[in-house]
Specification:
alpha/beta; Immunoglobulin-like; 2 domains; four-stranded mixed beta sheet; 8 strands
């Protein structure tokens, strides 16, 4: 192997290593919710943070972290997601004050509540 090819191989290895580190950091770094935004993670057949308190105008985003599908359905019919596969998201903006119960239509024991207060 010539000196030039060794340098190129070393540079390529550095680039691959850097890409791996950047990908790993990006996947474990959790971005802070935007103002007027809230997040609910679906994991292990539960809605993490089953009661979320927000102000009117807040957009809540549910993300399916399970390896099986789930849904997000309001008990009062005000919102309904499609079936969410792993990594899929569903968002809904809560415009008015109130208490909004929801559940997974596939696994009805999974429940949560969004409390909207001014």
């Amino acid at each position: 192997m010539t000196r030039g090819s060794k340098i190129l191989a070393f540079q390529a290895a550095i680039l691959v290593g850097s890409a791996f580190v950047m990908t790993t950091v990006a996947s474990i770094t959790k971005a802070a919710p935007l103002p007027g935004a809230a997040a609910v993670r679906i994991d292990n057949f539960t809605f993490k943070d089953p009661v979320v308190k927000v102000k009117p105008g807040t957009t809540v985003t549910w993300t399916n972290g399970d390896d099986i599908p789930h849904t997000v359905v309001a008990k009062d019919g005000s919102f309904k997601s499609k079936v969410l596969d792993t990594g899929d998201r569903f968002s809904f903006t809560f415009a008015k004050v109130g208490q909004f119960g929801y559940f997974c239509s596939i696994h009805p024991h999974m429940t949560g509540t969004i409390v909207v207060k001014a």
